[in-house]
Amino acid sequence: MDVSFLGGPQPQLGVGVVAPFDFALDRELWRWVPDDVSLHLTRTPFVPVEVSLDLARLVSEHETLDAAVQALCAVSPQVICYACTSGSFVGGLAGERAMCAAMAQAGDVPSLTTSGALLEALREIDARRIAVVTPYTKSVTDSLEDYLGEGGITVTGRAYLGLTRHIWKVPYRDVVDMARAAVVGSADALFISCTNLPTYDVIPQLEAELRMPVLSANQVTMWAALRAIGARAVGPYQALLDPVARRGPAAMTGWEPPGGGPLSPGGGPLSPGGGPRATPEAAFAGPPAPPDGEPDGVEPPHAPPEDPGPLPPV
Fold first, then answer.
1. Compositional bias (Gly residues) at which positions (predicted)?
2. Distance, CA of 45 to CA of 97 (rounded, Å)
3. What residues pair up with 13 in beta bridges, in sequence order?
4. What is the pTM of this model?
5. What's the rounded Cα separation, in Å, for the pair 161 and 165?
6. Tell me, what's the pLDDT at 190?
């Protein structure tokens, strides 16, 4: 059979990704990537340490980054990103810049990190006061707030889960509960931290409910990496990716839900038969992650730091 008419595979741009050993959301990263871009992932070596400041330091050591970058350079990516929030904010602004310099030197390729991409994204949407959601313990969440403060960003409210493992198992509804608890007072945007926390489908729902841009760790990482090579991240109704969406739902004249079709009187998409079509919030009703005994905690902005308090029941 003659297949010469196919012309061969389409040319691809390459994005190299260095992820921590416990990263479990490869598929989520791909959802922001256009068809003419390929992701090439590698992981840091396993260490028997739970999610903590110690682990953040271990998975961001320059020797570890050097080996990972050299492995990725075998497939000639146009940019390399370090996809770990805590690993890239644990050393503050100076530590993040040193990581980028070490990766660029190891591979002679432009390099960035999730935490650096976060500050870049906040500048893009002109946000200086933000609410923060994390799956981390208090000490790791404190470190994120310190990093943001160095970058000129004020945290107006925050909520966290207190997890030290299995972060990728957190359901969307827990993320939504934390977001509602964190967004109190005046904030320009919400940031959902940790590249191992699922966020893709929840972003449009939260932006519509909270009436503000919602950024997540994986989103800003892919947005910055793709922008660095002249490509654009894809995603339904996300303010960071679509300037029109930054002006809110009222600006979306003629907007149709993903997949096309009319909207219901309540604003949701209709199925071909006229009934409500499944939307991202339908995922919130899924079963919770199996209990592992991890401590939970949520800290409203005015609560004392030593008393985070429990999350609202799900």
1. 257-276
2. 22
3. 37
4. 0.79
5. 11
6. 98
Contact indicator for 101, 109 with CB cutoff of 8 Å: no
What is the predicted pLDDT for the residue at 185?
83
Check if the beta carbon of residue 116 is closer than 8 Å to that of residue 100: yes
Residue 283's contacts (CB-CB under 8 Å, 6 or more residues apart) are 171, 172, 201, 202
* Cβ atoms 189, 214 nearer than 8 A: yes
Rounded to an integer, what distance in angstroms lies between the CA atom of residue 200 and that of residue 182? Answer: 19
CB 72 within 8 A of CB 16: yes
C-alpha–C-alpha distance, residues 203 and 192, integer Å: 9
177-194 exposure pattern, b = at least 16 Cβ within 10 A, e = fewer: bbbbbbbeeebbbbbbbb
- Residue 248: predicted pLDDT: 57
Tokens of 183: 């967004």
Mean pLDDT by 10 residues, the chain (314 residues): 71 96 98 97 96 96 96 97 98 98 96 98 97 98 98 98 97 97 94 98 96 97 98 94 72 43 38 39 42 50 45 46
DSSP string, the chain: ---GGG-SSPP-EEEEEEE-TT---HHHHHHTS-TTEEEEEEEPPP-S--SSHHHHHHTT-HHHHHHHHHHHGGG--SEEEE--HHHHHTTHHHHHHHHHHHHHHHHSS-EEEHHHHHHHHHHHTT--EEEEEESS-HHHHHHHHHHHHHTT-EEEEEEE---SS-GGG--HHHHHHHHHHH--S--SEEEE--TTS--TTHHHHHHHHHTS-EEEHHHHHHHHHHHHTT-----TT-TTT-TTGGG-GGG-TT---TT--PBPTTSPBBPTTSSBPP-GGGGGGSPPPPP---------TTS-TT---PPPP-
Q: Which one-letter amino acid corresponds to residue 255?
A: W
